[in-house]
Specification:
CATH class: Alpha Beta
Number of helices: 4
CATH architecture: Alpha-Beta Complex
Structural class: alpha+beta
Radius of gyration: 16 Å
Strand order of the largest sheet: 2-3-4
Oligomer: single chain
């Protein structure tokens, strides 16, 4: 579907090896000397977690992105809490993009940025899969897209990725299968 959206002026297409499809749990900045520890900690979480079933509830569009939104449930919320609790203590400050956001962000979003270096934590966590982002920030009619329910499914791995522009995962550092 991401490839089909190119006709609208997509900035990226999801494709293993270039822009990996993913549902973000936490985006933060790590020091290179923390990578091995992060890998070890995430491997432990995956070894003690089960695959997560996510149910797509809608298409969402903001800031030129088109996302499949997923229902929040105790499984995905619990996994986010586990990841943040072990990675936040070893994060390296705040991403440049979020430093800029601090000037205009208030309330819980600002508190989350200060405490976790990421807005989408806890109450503001919005599980989603970004399909692409459009060059001119446009929104498109979604009635011609496959039903969002087709993007529901089981997520079987936990990964650590290097982020690129637009929140894309451009380099896989490590991935871990959840226990079966």
């Amino acid at each position: 579907m991401s490839r089909q959206l190119q006709r609208f002026g997509a900035l990226y297409v999801l494709e293993d090896g270039k822009c990996y499809p993913h549902a973000s749990l936490y985006m933060t900045q790590l020091r290179s000397d923390s990578l091995e520890r992060s890998i070890q900690l995430l491997a432990e979480i995956a070894a003690n977690s089960f695959a997560i079933n996510l149910t797509a509830t809608a298409y969402h569009q903001a800031e030129g992105y088109i996302d499949a939104e997923y229902k929040r449930d105790s499984d995905i919320e619990g996994l986010q809490r586990k990841v943040i609790s072990i990675i936040n203590p070893i994060r390296d400050g705040i991403r440049e993009k979020d430093k800029v956001r601090m000037f205009s962000t208030t309330g819980l979003a600002r508190e989350n940025l200060e405490k976790y270096g990421y807005r989408g934590v806890g109450e503001l966590f919005s599980p989603h899969l970004s399909l692409t982002r459009f060059k001119d920030g446009q929104a498109i009619a979604t009635d011609g897209l496959p039903p969002y329910a087709e993007l529901s499914g089981q997520f079987t791995k936990l990964g650590l990725f290097e982020m690129g522009d637009n929140g894309t995962c451009v380099r896989k550092i490590a991935e871990f299968e959840f226990q079966s």
